[in-house]
Specification:
Radius of gyration: 17 Å
Number of helices: 11
Protein name: Energy-coupling factor transport system substrate-specific component
Organism: Peptoniphilus gorbachii
Keywords: Membrane, Transmembrane, Transmembrane helix
InterPro entries: CHP02185_IM
């Protein structure tokens, strides 16, 4: 069981992949400058980041690695001024993703793919702030993006729309996992993930 504990090398990998994921997150997040595109941002992130996250899962096949990796971005966003909603919802999503991965013993493509699909839903927490911590989110958003942008977002972010956004993120995660598998076939075979 000792070989299943996280070591310094694993923590370094978590940090490196966490930085790469953050760059993708904020780069792809630029599409959110156009309010309507903000609703498809989680789907696009799920697709594009799939290769990075699936490679991470082949490199670090240990308990709690995905959880730690997945909490880096929400904690950075919280430190940058986002509300508690991002951290709390992400915490729930990451625990579920970690448990799914554990069912597959960390080396099953099927369970890693499902885990990543659930993982991809965490970014919806940034939009859920509009519904669950509205005053604080509006204050922060008006300061950064202006009143016209916030008015448009307020009309777009509803509970029914968020259900569709979460579904899009989940499906984007599945597609991203399959793209990652195709691009990283050699790494998956070496790691014993089929």
């Amino acid at each position: 069981m000792d070989n299943k504990k996280l070591k310094v090398k694993d923590l370094v990998s978590i940090g490196v992949f966490g930085v790469i994921y953050l760059v993708l997150l904020f780069g792809i997040g630029m599409m959110g400058i156009i309010p309507i595109l903000f609703l498809i941002y989680p789907t696009v992130l799920g697709i594009v980041a799939g290769t990075v996250v699936m490679l991470f899962m082949t490199k670090v096949q240990k308990p709690w690695a995905l959880f730690i990796f997945g909490m880096i971005s929400p904690l950075v966003m919280f430190a940058a001024g986002h509300t508690y909603v991002v951290v709390v919802l992400s915490l729930i999503v990451m625990i579920i993703a970690e448990l799914i991965r554990k069912i597959g013993n960390y080396n099953s493509f099927k369970y890693n793919m499902l885990s990543y699909a659930v993982f991809s839903i965490w970014i919806c927490s940034s939009m859920m702030q509009m519904l669950l911590a509205k005053e604080k989110y509006l204050e922060m958003s008006i300061e950064m993006m202006g009143k016209d942008y916030v008015d448009a977002m307020e009309k777009l972010i509803t509970y029914p729309h968020m259900a569709l956004v979460a579904l899009g993120a989940f499906l984007g995660g599945i597609l991203g996992a399959y793209i990652g598998k195709a691009l990283l076939k050699k790494h998956f075979e070496k790691a014993g993930i089929v």
